[in-house]
Design goal:
Shape: globular
Largest sheet: 7 strands, mixed
Number of strands: 14
């Protein structure tokens, strides 16, 4: 069986965790601080604040901009529910926008059509490792005095127009879930180039404290452990190499699968990091069956868009989201783990080509 995704944990990660366990300092401490410094430097991200998971990263980012009850936040419907969940948990109202067919990312024109006098922010999700069009989104946010947040849970190391994640937004958030491009077991990161927002997130993750028992604002416990951070520091050092391997595998897939299925499209100045390699076809079931028969893991991200989920029924808007609904019916992600062997890549190609013949 070729699994769709699996964490890659080596001896270095195990040794780092063991070292922290033996140190006796396992809550947030020097390892977390070091990961924050190294992450900000490696990804050219300004300030970095480590938190317990990617969903909390989104929630704290929204709280840091002082989102108020009833404020509207424009989000793509074609995303994991965590994006919209964070808006609701922060007291906001998610307003669902459509995506661009080519990238699966939020369509700036659709987002523009959703703006009302209650809109406070836009969240751009860099789905599957491909960055959204941040230039037009930044212009849109500036024109309407809106905050712009990037959900980069799947886009560690991605770039577009020669700019990294976070370069044109107020805040960006990452997930370090085990299947992401790098992992801390569970964990997340908020990055920003604004020191005021960085301080706000730091306070929010630690009960509003900088100095112990001095609470500057209401907060919670969203801290990362030193155990997680020690693992993350090792993983961060491998990220560029792993992303390179993902990109090389994607190029092989592109060469062999174009014409059989619709392959991922990239803007000329986009550095895609392929958290997922997502094909699409009106005959998706045939390709899924071929993968099952060949022992190839696959995933459908995401079969039910947020605007059609029961949890968000009260927030449904009247605007149609045709690209979102079509993508939900057609997408299929196949293995692109950086540890795939050449033979395993060939098996994936064979399975998809077989599916195209049935």
């Amino acid at each position: 069986m070729i699994h769709l995704a699996a964490p890659i944990i080596g001896d270095e990660e195990i040794a780092a965790v063991t070292r922290v366990l033996r140190s006796g300092q396992i809550a947030q401490g020097s390892e977390v601080a070091a990961l924050e410094t190294e992450f900000a430097a490696e990804l050219d991200a300004g300030h970095a604040v480590a938190v317990a998971n990617g969903t909390l990263a989104l929630l704290l980012a929204l709280q840091a901009i002082d989102l108020e009850h009833g404020d509207e936040v424009i989000v793509p419907s074609f995303t994991f529910a965590a994006t919209a969940n964070a808006v609701v948990m922060a007291g906001g109202i998610p307003v669902f926008a459509d995506i661009e067919e080519s990238s699966f990312c939020i369509d700036p024109e659709s987002a523009a059509a959703m703006i009302s006098d209650r809109t406070r922010a836009i969240i751009a999700v860099h789905l599957y490792g491909h960055m959204a069009r941040m230039g037009p989104l930044a212009d849109l946010a500036a024109a309407h005095d809106l905050r712009l947040i990037e959900d980069a849970a799947q886009a560690h190391g991605a770039r577009r127009d020669h700019l990294p994640v976070g370069a044109l937004s107020d805040l960006a958030t990452y997930s370090f879930y085990p299947t992401k491009n790098m992992t801390t077991g569970e964990g997340g990161m908020v990055t920003t180039r604004d020191p005021v927002l960085a301080r706000a997130v730091s306070l929010l993750r630690n009960h509003g404290m900088e100095q112990r028992y001095h609470h500057d604002r209401v907060g919670t416990n969203a801290r990362m452990t030193d155990i997680a951070a020690a693992m993350g520091r090792i993983q961060l050092g491998k990220l560029e190499g792993w992303n390179g391997r993902r990109r090389r595998t994607a190029a092989v897939y592109d060469l062999h699968l174009a014409g059989t299925v619709s392959i991922p499209q990239n803007a000329p100045t986009t550095h895609h990091v392929y958290h997922q390699y997502t094909i699409r076809s009106e005959r998706r079931d045939h390709f899924a069956s071929a993968c099952e028969d060949a022992g190839i893991g696959y995933g459908i991200y995401y079969p039910i868009p947020c605007h059609l989920q029961k949890a968000f029924a009260r927030y449904k808007n009247d605007s149609p989201l045709p690209e979102t609904e079509q993508a939900a019916d057609e997408v299929l992600s196949v293995p692109i783990r950086p540890d795939l062997t050449d033979r395993e890549v060939e098996r994936v190609i064979d399975a998809i080509e077989t599916g195209g013949k049935t």
